[in-house]
Write a structure and sequence with these properties.
- There is one protein chain.
- Helix 1 packs antiparallel against helix 2.
- The chain is mostly helical.
- It contains two helices and no strands.
- The mean pLDDT is 90.
- The chain is 94% helix and 0% strand.
Length: 171
């Protein structure tokens, strides 16, 4: 009779261990998925911040271009005034060519700044794309970890049941 009670006890302990392993692995799988979702959400948020920074760069670049164009206009007006004050006709020959060259240089500077701003903005957006791709990978890793823990959970359950049956057969 004592051998039979030990067999029942061993079978019960084996089944209980299997159930505990099952429950623990299921919870671990859920936790792994939640952690990956949290990390992916952080990456998505950081990507959104980079997109906002890219938009801000474009806006600031446009505002600076307007200010630079205003300053350039004032500079050219002052240049014409200085030519006239010195007795030179600002709209003739060399003074006109000098002012046109200055205006052309200023336009080139504005276009270079616009180009550089767009390049910087695109670089920020590309970083955001990289973060979003990383977030997708992180989510998939979480799903895979959860699946692996589920497999361990079912393995624990089967192992516990198998151990319980083995213990009962030995009675």
């Amino acid at each position: 009779m004592a051998a039979m009670s030990y067999a029942y006890l061993a079978a019960g302990a084996s089944v209980a261990g299997g159930l505990m392993g099952f429950a623990g692995n299921m919870k671990a799988g859920d936790a792994a998925k939640k952690v990956s979702e949290y990390n992916a959400a952080i990456q998505d948020r950081n990507a959104a911040v980079l997109d906002q920074e890219a938009d801000r760069k474009i806006l600031i670049g446009d505002i600076e271009a307007v200010g630079f164009r205003d300053d350039a206009g004032k500079f050219l007006d002052n240049m014409a005034v200085n030519y006239r004050n010195s007795g030179v006709v600002a709209t003739s020959d060399t003074p006109l060519l000098v002012m046109l060259a200055a205006a052309n240089d200023m336009d080139e500077d504005i276009e270079k700044n616009k180009y550089n701003t767009k390049v910087e903005s695109l670089a920020l957006r590309e970083q955001g794309v990289g973060l979003r791709l990383g977030a997708n990978v992180t989510r998939e890793e979480g799903r895979q970890r959860k699946q692996a823990y589920r497999m361990k959970a079912y393995s624990s359950l089967l192992s516990g049941a198998s151990g319980g049956f083995s213990a009962m057969r030995q009675k």
